[in-house]
Write a structure and sequence with these properties.
membrane, transmembrane, globular, mainly alpha, 18 helices
Amino acid sequence: MEQIDRTSSSSSYEDGPAPLWKLVLVSAIAAGVQFGWALQLSLLTPYVQLLGIPHTWSAYIWLCGPVSGMLVQPIVGYYSDRCTSAFGRRRPFILSGACCVALAVVFIGFAADIGYTTGDDLSQKLRPRAITVFVVGFWVLDVANNMLQGPCRAFLADLCAGDANLMRRSNTLFSFFMALGNILGYAAGSYQKLHKFLPFTKTEACDVYCANLKTCFIIAIVLLMSITLVAIYFVEEKRLTPEEIEDDGSSGGVPFFGQIFGAFMGLSRPMVLLLVVTCLNWIAWFPFLLFDTDWMGKEVYGGVPNQGKAYDSGVHAGSLGLMLNSIVLALTSLFVELAIRGVGGLRVLWGFVNLILALGFGMMIFVTKVSASQRQFGPDGDALIPSAAVRAGALAIFAVLGIPLAVTFSIPFALASIFSADSKAGQGLSLGVLNISICIPQIIISMTSGPLDQALGNGGNLPMFVIGMCAAALSAVLAMVLLPKPNTSAKLTLAPSGHHEA
């Protein structure tokens, strides 16, 4: 959730905006953060199943993302606005968040080893101690990521000192480094021999897949901490004095939540419709974002977690697909404004790409059926690698879905800014409310996907993909039919939003 800056215009650079190189250093932290997010999205759902958590329950672990997105970021943002540390307002939270990320990924990467050391039986499929360590690390990681991102964006705004052009440039830099972090993270996750660079990562309790994941997270720690330390050392911050803190008249609690409630009560009809379309859109997206690599391992490669190499090979192929998805996303982001003019407006483009998303889900179901009909097994009973056509088709789906994802990261936020122009709530609050409409679908999908897949798909992913296809098609129709035409005289800046900030 984007931070709501309720302090007056006290900037870290009251004498003028910071030079561009300082914006680059702070924006680069996004690459380290997103490198970890990419590993989460591509590797962790399969990993929890390797530890013995059933597919039915694995989705519940993802509940921390939206919960922390709705709670942690606004609270951290509120207190970072009012922090009087000699180290600055934002930097204490940025450094603390980075250290918590490092601690969390140690728990995640070494969960199998810690579980084995404390008594897990490797002959049993379920490893309860490793699962406990992993879940604690996973939730700490989500909280820490949300603790880190809000102050980073606020720090950039401070450095811009009210310069609107520089703010747009800093948002572009932040988005660029997020895309770069995605690409690097997915590339690392897709390389099956990465653990050979750190041979100690492969242990009795940690097989090749686990060792690769452990190596990826060690790289993530080094990358994030290096960038963060360089940024906070070279980019100074003015100390905020108690006299500069705006007295908002609250004696306790966090006034942010009262503001959010007031914003909901005063929403205009266009904004309500936007929230509905956004909610449907993300109900469509989350089955893909949470289970894409698991789909490659199970449905495309025909593998079973903890049995043979097919599942692991499919997961790594899925990470390659996510890297292609990120490359297409980054390239598409450069042409969104041109596409808007070409198709006749924001809502038309958003509706059109949602149809592409629905078609993508349909093709995932088709590829699943084709792969199942062609599947062959080796002497050991493990599924053989699917045909080149099936693999190419699956990777093509990943790549093409980068197009609607790029639009999803920009147009809803632009529409929220336009629709809120005449409302009592500011744009920051409107974007905060919009983010809640993204968090709620993730909670819904996380709570329902496991039971539905188990009941209707024998532990597979197809039932949720069918729901995603229907939600995408419905959101496409509503975007083009119900959403009002935005005010074309409003100033529009389409700086893509950061990926998966909930």
